[in-house]
Amino acid sequence: MIKVDNVKKRFGDEEILKGITTVFEKGKTNLIIGQSGSGKSVLLKCLLGLFKPEEGKIYYEENAIQDMDEDEQRELREEIGMLFQGGALFDSMTIEENVMFPLRMFTKQRKSEMLDRVNDVLNRVNLENVNKKYPAEISGGMQKRVSIARAIVNKPKYLFCDEPNSGLDPKTATVIDNLIQEITHENNITTVVVTHDMNSVMEIGESIVFLKNGLLVWQGTQEDIFSTDNKDVTDFVYSSDLFKKIRHIQQRD
Amino acid sequence: MLKKVFGSFTKRSVLRELIFKEIDDLIIGSLGIVVFISFFVGGVIAIQTALNLENPILPKSLIGFATRQSIILEFAPTFMSIIMAGKVGSFITSSIGSMRVTEQIDALEVMGINSLNYLVFPKIVALMLYPLVIALSMFLGILGGWVAAVYGGFSSSTAFTSGLQEDFTSFHLVYAFLKTFVFAFILATVPSWQGYYMKGGALEVGKASTKSFVWTSVLIILSNFIITQLLLS
Fold it and tell me: Among residues 94-123 of chain B, which lie with CB inside 8 Å of chain A?
């Protein structure tokens, strides 16, 4: 569980996050949604400790990340898996080396044990025969899956995903979404996904927070989001023709 | 930056591998161009000196003497370092800059790895072998001078080698290698800084590489002036 308590973040004179308070629950895929510039990615970087909020605290279980010293923060980060928007795979390493990287850095396992674990997680994300390839030699969707494999290889307690579907076709995007949700349930971890993709909301939005201009303006579940009368949320949800048509059909029926 | 480079060390076995990789990229990978440039520039220095010795009173051994002094004091340590600022410096800036742009550095930080130590420390250690490259450059420069002088018919081998030994001051070697260590540190840190703290996309990686070359060269020239003033004046 991650608790966000009145987090404010400024860049110069501009306040990007204006006091966010919420809880990201364990065993669920928690979505942060909102338009571009709403503060989603800044909130994610605050959660990861990459940005330091000017006010407020972020608690991992009972411990505030702001109160941790550098070593404690480093230990916490060993429990975090992160799926970056572009994959962020290391170009100079093969897929196998990329996935093995967290194990090499933080465990004392023998190489054969590490290789077994790498093959397990690559199988889990449905990738085969890519071990010796380099990231540039595989497709964007495969890179995302490798990135998920790297994020979960060290059995993290927290999984963060930044726009996991960006640049992917709808079918591959659904595969990635489902994979994230399955992994969350299988391992009972706290997963936080930043997205502006309504398909992801439909697929995996078990708990959703909606940000607008640095404020949390709505919070609820996948079912709630289609029945809310919050204008900001409905404007966002029904901004695409597809969802407008779905609403039209629902209202007609 | 330097405080973080030398703090929170990466796991030793991983660091060892990174250092060997950097030695391969930065030192071994530079040998070809160093060999080529040093040999031919050494030859050119010898020919230029010979062509300017019009007065018959001046001994032919002066060609060897001038070649040795030019190469040991300035060409090998300083000008080879400026060439390396273009080769090694741009490589360091663009590789770290690309990692910044593609969030690979963020990935390291999120994993709890001190990215500055992971990326920059191995480069500093690898470039501490840089004086060996400069020693090779000195040797090949003088060899190139000898080949050009003797086979170009400007001097006999005996006159050239006696010029090489004339008024030899061993402190000049100490001075040359001392400044080479300083240049090696500049070559490792300035381009790393430019790459690590760059902002923007792919275009900015190119701009950062150019800036890196300019600043590395400026710092090499300035530190060369200061060290020369301190040690030789």
Answer: 98-99, 102-104, 106-107, 109-113
List pLDDT tens digits, range A24-79: 999 999 999 988 888 998 999 999 888 889 999 999 988 898 888 878 888 888 88
3-state SS string for A164-221: CCCCCCHHHHHHHHHHHHHHHHHHCCEEEEEECCHHHHHHHCCEEEEEECCEEEEEEC
Cβ contact, residue pair A73, B112, below 8 Å: yes
Q: What is the CATH topology of the domain spanning A2-79+158-252?
A: Rossmann fold (3.40.50)
At A236 the pLDDT is 81
Residues of chain A found within 8 Å of residue B110, distances taken between Cβ atoms: 48, 50, 77, 80, 82, 160
A-chain residue closest to B12, CA distance: A105
Cite the DSSP H helix spans in chain B: 2-5, 12-22, 31-52, 61-70, 80-84, 90-101, 104-110, 115-127, 130-151, 157-165, 170-196, 202-232
Percent over 90 (pLDDT), chain A: 34
**Single-letter code of the amino acid located at A91:** D
The number of residues in chain A equals: 253
d(CA B121, nearest CA chain A) in Å: 16
Domain spans in chain A, listed from the N-terminal domain onward: 2-79+158-252, 87-155
How far off is chain B from A74, nearest CA to CA, in Å?
A: 4
**pTM metric for this prediction:** 0.84
